[in-house]
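In the lab's daily routine, each protein ends up as an entry in a very long ledger. A line of letters takes care of the sequence, but it says nothing directly about the fold. The three-dimensional part falls to structure tokens, numbers that each stand for a local backbone shape. The outcome of that step, for a single protein, is printed below.
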Amino acid sequence: MKKKILLYDTTLRDGGQAEGVAFSLPDKLRIADRLDRIGIQYIEGGWPGSNPKDMAFFREIRNYPLKQARVVAFGSTRRAGVSVEKDGNVISLLGAGTPAIAVFGKSWLLHVTDVLRVAPRTNLEMISDTVGYLKKKGKELIYDAEHFFDGYKDDAEYALASLLAAAEAGAEFLVLCDTNGGCLPEEIYRITKLVSERFGTPLGIHTHDDGGLATANTLAAVRAGVVMVQGTINGYGERTGNANLCTIVPNLVLKMDLPALTRPRLRKLEDLSRFVDEMANITPNPRAPFVGQSAFAHKGGMHVDAVRKNPRSFEHIDPAQVGNRRRVLVSELSGKSNVILKAIEFGVDLDKETPETARVLAELKRLGEEGYDFEGADASFRILLQKAMGKHKDFFKLEGFRVIVEKRQDQPPVSEATIKIKVGEKSELSAGEGDGPVNALDNALRKVLLRFYPEIGQVHLADFKVRDLDAAAGTAAKVRVLIQSRDREDIWDTVGVSQNIIEASWQALVDSVDYKLLKRGKQGKKK
């Protein structure tokens, strides 16, 4: 029978210690709810003795009907010279009211003598007293042996003695921690295997990614016998981060055939990853294994051709198994296979030998020389595809626009745009203001289009990026503008290139509107 791997998430506590990450109380509650729904067994909510927000979380989470996850409060062993019953940290752990408690203690003599500055025997008593006291209070007790692997390499006898103190006091799990993140997989495996053979208490693993090996070290520990895997969503954590559950869990389930999550729940992993990034206000890492936007993206012509014939040729798993999807990238380097597969994504049937395919390739190469990049602008490529196939329809025609930026003394600048467009035989004039010239132009365009296409009211500009294509040319350089737009159902990206930033922005804005109307099935006037 395959062993069951228990997943212990510490995004809300250890992940919140990452530079640039600060979860609000509502964020933490929403994340906990999503972790529970995907099937995480243990959710570490925070350290109740460290700040009021964590204690508020433990109070509020009681109102959430979690289906299967156990909420865990985290804290340290009692202080030296203070009885466990009177230790403020221990009292706050009980006050959190959680069914499970995680206590960390020192297993490395260096920390005992140089950080705690207590006698080695005193540290063991602090571990035993704290675990035993909380266990008697009816709590499930998880003991985190901080710096265990470094401690073992320094003094194996003492590191093992610290585990024994926790085990004999009643800890249900002994978690071995590579807190500095500097160990190698073979070290993790060897030491964990030895501990597994010596202790009957179930083991866990907690690794950090300072050496870029947190995933490898976690999987090595699983092979050596651990049953509890600790980590964070997207690898958030101090310094370079914690073990990334979004990488570890697919490897456990799909590569090691261990039931850490059910297959249907694993298909929600990419969605969970993006949700937590959104809560942390961090741009998702496109190159993240399994869940990144680029994880199953193909650009090289030979690779794309092989994937078209058999996806297994360049994909180690089916992207849908983790909720992701295959993406074919198009650029001036693309071959016919790239264009054909990209067209299929948009529901367009092309063949390698058709004139349309040759026209698309020729246009890609021409625009690539001018500085266009369609890898991050699928919507613009969709418009290019329509034009090359002779199926593009004009939804409106520009008759002219004017953009004014006015600056008065120390006041913020004011931007205003006036635009005149023609739809069918009817011309319309409109004006708009904005935070900047592009925002003003966008507002003016959408205002006038609303009279003809009401659904444009659903669209708003979500992101705006400018890249200098020739730094040596200074202010005369060409720029590439990428615009991300969204409505109630979708997000899409468009691109424009010009020596004039307003013109480049206009090109991207037009593609954005065209794409919206195209996907809604509107009819325009054919060129």
The chain has a mean pLDDT of 90. DSSP finds 18 helices and 18 strands in the chain.
